[in-house]
Please model this.
Amino acid sequence: MLVSSIAFSREHSTGRTSAVGSSSLAHASPYVVEDCLGLVQVLSDGTIRRFPPPPFPAGDVHDDGRVEWKDVVYNADHNLGVRMYRPRRREANEAGGGGGDDDDDKKKLPVVVYFPGGGFCFGSYSYPKNHVFCLRLAAELPAVVFSFDHRHAPEHRLPAAMEDAEAALLWLPGQIFSNPWLAGTADPRRLFVSGTSSGATLAHHMAVRFGTTGLHPVKITGYILLMPYFLSEEPTVSELNTPETALLSRERSNRYVRLMMPVGWNKDHPVVNPFGPGSPSLAAADVGRMLVVAAECDLVRDKNLEYAERMKAMGKDVRLVVFSGQEHAFCATKPLSAGADEVIRLIKHFV
Model:
């Protein structure tokens, strides 16, 4: 368990004003005021407690040796890491057209950047389920995969995560061209930026920031948004119909908003509402090819559909796929499910 402390306002966390100054309250033991799936707790005295995710029973069983991986630090100032995955040489050569072909470029694999989800409050490449999903991406596409961490709220509210995602992409070209571990494996002309949930929200912002040419000489070919965490002050039908038992319920979503947003921001801020009243126009954004995956039984389904349709209306090359009967982030929370199988097949076809 990791413990830290911030100046945390109970009023900001709940939207309610409470009386202070009582001697009994002043000396009371700290109690939990916010809890995020048992992974992050905020106490009444401002203490933040972080807990490791539950183990995934599959775990290393599905690290079958087809993929090599290693962890490195990409941002020393904030001690932020990335997990890099590559298929073993034999698999990579077979997938890239090896076996007597002298053209090294034909042996190189696409590069997939992946930002894990977690409502900007938790989530990491080290979470067992995220690790299994990235192992599958690397092995089955096949591809070189970079799974990046970022700073978390409430210790680091937005836009910290966006700043870290930008730093991650700016760090990437040097690795593709100069890291011996990736020599001859990663294709700098085929980079795809992806993420699930809040990670997909980051992928959207990277599309606006970098487009297809903003990492020259690396070429960003496309963006893959898996159930992006888009919101609005006006609730949608899918939000209103989401049961409280859902992984992403209205109550949980509102908790993430309280923790991740600076004071004065709301759900119409451009960081989570690309088409909010104060959001800049996306008409000029060169996002290349884009894949948007939505889930039928997801709180953010309607915002995902709206995003895809409005991007299409602006002439963007967007493919929308809606998965029937699935909940939010299903491919990341159940990375060995039939639904995850289909998502990976979809991504493989897209890249």
